[in-house]
Amino acid sequence: MIIVGEKINTSRRSISEAAEKKDAEFILMMAREQAEAGAGFIDVNAGTFLDQEVDRLCWLVETVQGGLDLPLCLDSPNPDALAEAMKRHKGEPMINSISLEPDRYRSLLPVITSRPCRVIALCMAETSMPTTVEERFTVAAELISRLTGEGIPLEKIYVDPLVQPVSVDTNMGLAVLGAIRRIMEAFPGVNTICGLSNISYGLPHRHLINRNFLAVAIASGLNAAILDPTDRQLMATLLSIELLLGRDEYCQNYIEAYENGRLVA
Amino acid sequence: MIIVGEKINTSRRSISEAAEKKDAEFILMMAREQAEAGAGFIDVNAGTFLDQEVDRLCWLVETVQGGLDLPLCLDSPNPDALAEAMKRHKGEPMINSISLEPDRYRSLLPVITSRPCRVIALCMAETSMPTTVEERFTVAAELISRLTGEGIPLEKIYVDPLVQPVSVDTNMGLAVLGAIRRIMEAFPGVNTICGLSNISYGLPHRHLINRNFLAVAIASGLNAAILDPTDRQLMATLLSIELLLGRDEYCQNYIEAYENGRLVA
Fold this sequence. Notes:
The structure is a homodimer of 265-residue chains. Chain A is an alpha/beta fold and 265 residues long. Chain A folds into 2 domains: 72 residues, no CATH class; 139 residues, TIM Barrel (Alpha-Beta Barrel), CATH 3.20.20.20. The first copy, chain A, is built from 10 helices and 8 strands. An 8-stranded parallel beta barrel of chain A has the order 1-2-3-4-5-6-7-8, surrounded by 6 helices. In chain A, strand 6, helix 7 and strand 7 form a beta-alpha-beta unit. Chain A is globular and about 45 Å long. The first copy, chain A, starts with a strand and ends in a 6-residue tail after the last helix.
């Protein structure tokens, strides 16, 4: 399971303040904390800075990689911000995200083909948000076909089926789970990734829904997630599911987490 | 989701003591508590009473149904105990359980065909415990074929894939989940049921594993479970999963549980 730590996002007030005053120590602490908790990538997002986004995103990249040897997930719909951030990034970043929306696709394609990277391909159609499994699969197949046609290996594509709230439409959980299963079966080698929190929008006890959603999404084939790895209940769910799906030899990770006091029951 | 409340089992000390002194009030309280928490069936098991099992099981049946209008799950490998308990049971009981073991099959068949009942069919082969999906499916198919051949409707058969500990073999989770999916796909209308706690045998924080196992088992097609419905974290998992699988219209059950303070996050 590939974990992208989601916390360094300027939509969070503490991150916004740290980016504002360029408090490198705080940002690096947030990055290290996530890495220690199991993140394989650290997401960086400075979207709230609007016309200063390029500057702040580049600063985040240099700050995090200045003290931590981990690839980042460069999170922006802005091609200029991504292009500049990629230049400063050491190693192979993950780009979050391209989609089938014509403007976004056209402007991001040169960026993601400019050097080796992983790319999150959002199941957003040319004209509308997908609702069904079928719609998501159609968009995913088209994106995979185009991106591999541009020379991006299947193994570097992370399809995001686009999670929408069950409070808006109770079929939204099934639609995402079905899409994950279908995409993973149709394109062996591709990855699926998603954020969790949209699923529970508008409902009480959101963390409870989010972590159960993670459980069934992994069982449906999800192999990457954008989440807060310092959420111990969420990580306990993840450890349990990996154990139950036969991916934890000798139950070693589970028992180790227990012995280190990290396993919240 | 059909919930069989597991608590009235004389292997639990408080139940054994109550059955010993025929404390009907205590037994009835345990039954009502489970019914209020969502049980559709109340399991009754007096196995520890050995040569007094028939007497105590019949007493449990009369005691519970004396104060609660709910069908019971009569839980014993002993055909005499089951036959006597069935005579005292009002309505249609669930019988727990028949299997392919020759003696058990032969002696229980007349009992379960003596009057209408639901029957739990344990994936226990003639000679050995199953380990793989394939072995479980083979036993299930044979049991379904035989039982429907005897006139038991498919809808009244509850196949138990036989949960074994992941601590013994890390593939045991996948084997059960795969068997559930395969049985439910191959025999539309049949039910699958299991107990949860064997999965976590020998590991710390068993409840954490048990409830995550319930989550992925339901997502694989499990439609009945033998569990403790008064375990609020377990029931919160169940409510979340039903919500995520599109089975909770307007998120009504989830929100109601929250409003009643029953939803533990």
